[in-house]
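Pilot study result, target chain (459 residues):
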Amino acid sequence: MDPMKRIIDLTGSASENDASVRKQEDLSELKENLLYTMAEIKSSGSFMTQKSLASGVIPGLHVPGIGAIGLPISTENAKAMIQSSWMSPYGKGTETLVNESNPRWETQLNIFRDQAVTGLGLTTAKPEEVKMELYKLLIYEEGAFFLPHQDSEKADGMFATLVISLPSKHEGGEVIVSHKGESLKFETGSNSEYGFSWAAWYADVMHEVKPVRSGYRIVLVYNLIHHPSAALIKFRGDKIGSLNRLLSAWTLAFENSTHRLEIWHDQVEVNCPATLVYLLDHQYSIAELSVARLKGVDRQRFVQLQAACLKNNCDIYLANIEKSVKGGVEDDEYYGGYYGRGRHLDDNGFHTLEDVYEDSLELLHVVDMQGAAAGKNLPFPETMIIQNDAFNGEPDDEDFEGFTGNEGSHATHFFRPTGLLIVPKAVSFLFEVELLKEDQGDTKQYDARMRTPADATIG
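Predicted structure:
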């Protein structure tokens, strides 16, 4: 059934609208329609993209203390580089200082960059706006691996990592990249004797390197950095009409409600305006929390939602969210022991909560479309989130405390998604109220915003 045929009617009289806004079933149906429409907005790319080449331009590697390194990399040169390297965290690989001296290598890199930008679905970015910054050279000898992890933001504007596997015969060392329950494999061994392979993935996805079975897997690691032009966000899609109709009904009902502020005021545990929260596919750090840093399908969904908000008297914000769930766990004498994993840990090393006795949900950090702080540490109800069962998957982090004389073992699971907030303009000023209460707001700006049109013309 077309979800647009099931839009709730919130355009009747003021009293009818007041009743409808308060009905949980109406809110649920609105969220269901929004979720369906947003899901139809898809990225042309993936969270990981890759390519293999039978041959390529020689980068002209030069390692201090060793000199020029030819390709394919010989066993002798690989061992020499290991001697001048240091251990890398999370695994048993080694990293080496290196520079590229062949000017033709930059042309080759630009080709890799353009293909990576397209493969990752960054369709609104100009390839020349994406900079490649050499981060390190990694050497994986037999038995070396890299544990599952996310890349940290190593430079301002970094949104992805690009790894180039150089000609060096090896077996194993496959990279497994995972995101939202889907896994992709980057296999380099079959093309390693004379060929090049590269892969790029978004910085927030989980990835690991399986053990190298033989030989030396040698890769150059680049940070992909994006500083977009002012004209970057221009994409418009055919889902804007559907979003318009959905938001129009909701905002009209809310604006006509005579109790909207009273309802907010009575909920003392809720410190943010009435809002709809759409959780994004990717996670963003505070440094990355801006429109310019949105990735792939997140960017496309934002652009279409922003267009609908502009037409329907809504503001749109970005927010980092934290859900914490605390509960008891079974005592595990093997936890942290020789095998590194206890009987009551799942495959990702998290304890299973046997009983939950404490939980919280907050907007940790909220920014407006200009990147200015709009709020922080604001509790809000889970009913505002458009997605159902948003926190049923694996947590992002865990705090564990073992048995003590006073209490049994317990753990706290943390879920840290990033979301888009849709807020009717009629109540978006409440963000400023909360900032002012924390002595962080701009009183002059707030006073100016609160003036009536008549007041603004006086003096």
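One observation from the pilot: The first strand starts at residue 48 and ends at 53. A full batch analysis is planned for the follow-on phase.
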